[in-house]
Amino acid sequence: MTAPAWTLEDLNLNAPDHFERGEAHEILRYLRQHQPVHWNKEWQGRVGFWNITKYDDVMFISRNPELFISSKNISSAYPIDESEIDPETDGQGKHLITMDPPRHVRMRRLVNKGFTPRAVNALEPHIRDITNHILDDIEHKERTDFVLDVASQLPLAVICEMMGVPRKDWPLMFQLTNKVLGSSDPEYQDDIPAEMRGTLEGARMTNKNGRLQMFEYFQQAIEERRANGGEDLLSTIVESEVDGQELTDEEIRWFAFLLIVAGNETTRNAISGGLHVLSEHPEQRKKLQDDMSLLPSAVEEILRWVSPVMHMARVATDDVEIRGTRIKKGERVVMWYPSVNRDEEVFPDPYTFDITREPNDHLAFGIGEHFCLGAGFARLELKVMFEELFRRFPDVQVEGEPDRLRSNFIGGVKHLPVKLR
Amino acid sequence: MRVFVDPDLCEGHSKCEKSAPAVFEVRDDDLSYVLLDPVPEEHREGVERAVRVCPRGAIAMTEDNE
């Protein structure tokens, strides 16, 4: 291994370039070995934070949601000057992912019965139908962009149907999700002046535009549900009460925003990343295609390998020691999932892609209070997609490298050229 | 030892049932139930694993002398 181009002192995981260039695993391995609790200096007006790269430490943080809170936002990037925070589009404490117990538990219970493994698995035949419609649309093609035409389409359809978003608006939901979660990437910054693209300020503008449009869209939907009722998840939320109080429009808008964004961006990348990693390991792919009963464990290995959400941040509510390092009250810790999922102390041969790995207690969905609500859907969508894809296009081949999202939050793939037969 | 599942947190992921099938049962209401009280020592390893892997951190155990 050549000497790294950065030092522990100046290493900065807020910079999206490392991720776009695909250097993240090398950096995270270095941190695990040399400084698993590492101070990331402040940068461009963003606070410093602790990079947490070991499995056991992420477990400890995740299992203590009152000591490590989510309500100061969950991204590594947090402004030093809090007056920069825009109350209209900042979600601190306003939705599940940025909410702490005990309210988090009560809000989550409004919807979680729709996401249990049993509820999800009852939808399998329907999800298979959707998948086959998606594949029908590429049937006549020789080549396609797997992300746009396949991987993005299934999770988008599933979450939009659940939320009662009509089909004509699905492309809008896709576009706005890209603006919110891909706001650092110039490809999605078509709403701002060219000279702003790729800058931090430009990312903030694109992100804000995406959020405001999403809120406007769901405000109309909320009013429509209030007037006419409905059977979808949005109607359920509109009609729900927490502690004897109906949710405010603002709370419902945030709820809808979170479900749409989280529901369609993450699984998209797991499907694309899954096809990519299987193509890079033809012997594993052959083993799977020869015996599709291995798919459930292959899905877990894809999740471990891809880790579609790269980090979540928490803020310490008290002084606490992690691995001998003192974290002070009010300081930010950032848990790196691609790192913990290749922790040498937990996973034997972590850099080996093994579709039969057992046990495989990866943390791709996080763990504890904020464990991914949609994990059951993600697992089922991955399973059904690979079953149907390999049944109908057994020779599908990735051609070229994935075009990666410029982000330190979402391990995204924007485009993946494939040859279908 | 005694074992408890917090019904406010449990979402029926069934990891506990797989770790210690004699101790946990996930029923039609998507909640996990503890079948034994107290839980005999022979199931300790499975219960400890269940506590560790429960996605929601919904399982707690106490020792007999607590």
The rounded Rg of chain A comes to 21 Å
Could you give the order of the helices and strands of chain B?
A: EHEEHE
| Gross geometry of chain A | globular
Strand content of chain A: 5-15%
Q: Largest interface by residue count?
A: A-B, 18 and 13 residues
Poorly predicted sequence stretches spanning 5 or more consecutive residues of chain B:
none
> Helix count of chain A?
16
**How many beta strands in the DSSP annotation of chain B?**
4
Structural class of chain A: alpha+beta
Distance between the termini of chain A: 38 Å
Main sheet: strand order of chain B: 1-4
What is the number of E strands of chain A? 14
What fold name goes in the CATH topology slot of chain A?
Cytochrome p450
Please, what is the CATH homologous superfamily of chain A?
Answer: Cytochrome P450
Gross morphology of chain B: globular
Q: What is the H/E string of chain A?
A: HHEEHEHHHEHHHHHEEHHHEEEEHHEEEE
The biggest sheet of chain A amounts to:
5 strands, mixed
For this structure, what is the CATH class of chain A? Answer: Mainly Alpha
CATH topology of chain B: Alpha-Beta Plaits
